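Bumping with the actual sequence this time:
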Amino acid sequence: MRGTDGYFHNTTASVSINHFISGKWNIALRSSYDNRNFAAQNFYTTSISDTATEKVTSLWNHLHLGYNATKHSFTFNAGYKSVKDHFLFNNKSTANENKSNLLQGLAVYKYQPTEKTSITTGANLISKQITSNDKGNHILGQIAGFATLNHLAARNFYVNPAIRAQWTESIGWGFVPQVNLFYKLTNWQLRVSAGKITRDADFTEPDNNYNKPLVPGGSVGNPNLKAEKSFSYEAGADFFVIKNMRVSTTLFRRNFTELIDFVTTPYAEMPRKDNLSPTGTFALAKNIAKLTSTGLETDVMYSSKFKGEQQLNISAGLTWIDTEGENLTPSFYITSHAKFLTNFNVQYRVRWFSMSINGLFKQRQERAATAINAAIDKEYFALNTMMLGFIYKRKLSAFTQLDNAFNKRYSDLLGSQMPGRWLMGGFKLLL
């Protein structure tokens, strides 16, 4: 393998507690720690000089306060997450050092005046901050209020309109309307929904690689980005064909305006060249004028219990997406998303033992990067299996897991090869 050997070292720990103060109030706390040290060669670029490594350390804390009465309910959730990201492109480059903090608060009040009607209102606060030798120092705030109505307008017919008003520091005020309609009968239901979505650029898209003294290649931010807007609508149906079985089909369409994506751009066409190498290959963040994605999703789920504490769960899914638009410049989203994807999972459980098998078939656009001798095949199929047995009650168990059983050579990111056949085993302890 060119450059670095593939590796990852992950450590995760979490603790949580939930206490009922009274019959109507409860409070919960949760904290988690996650450390990931891994080889990131060609995760973000197709440069031959990319032998990147990355280390990401996260600490997350969550507070939940809830109240539940007959016609009224209230929840308040507050979360704080801090992340340290150390990224080294190669041994000759200066490492990117990023420290970010995310503070969120969400208050939701629900009132149900009748059996046919419920009203939900709430407010949301988000504050994001980053300190970076690469992207600079930034603080971004957002406040929002929302309201949702769930109403049984006629027999078996539900109407669910919603509106969200939000203010973002970088783009000002915006309104996000949505509506969902449901028609339910005993063995099937029809659903239709439509809504608007607005997304501002994150810290990477406008500011990536702006503060470094020299950038030999890779993704470069664009501070002149406009907010990404889209309008989505879908129609679907759920059928309960036989007992314990559900079939769902959804047809959807999403119209993008000013979609934000990274586009391969020659040095001569880069709007800012101050710290860029003339020999480098770059991906510039841009607003793609118009883009439309049309797709179809179908899911089948079956679950049944038998004598002797036996249980069988089967699920399968299929997704097809077609993307087209004006002046389609090859970009990360357009070239990397799968056009056709299908997956399945089968799990059998009996008392102290369970086994499962799952598979994924993906079809997408072929791509190649001759400089690093890498390619993405038009399609691939991967199969995984797992067996688990309980040693002590339902607390202690041992498992063995085989991923990529057929040892398929494939990549989801150009130049970043996925692991081959991989056998794992271990123990799980539930306290």
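The tokens above came from a reply further down the thread. The CA atoms of residues 336 and 365 lie 7 Å apart.
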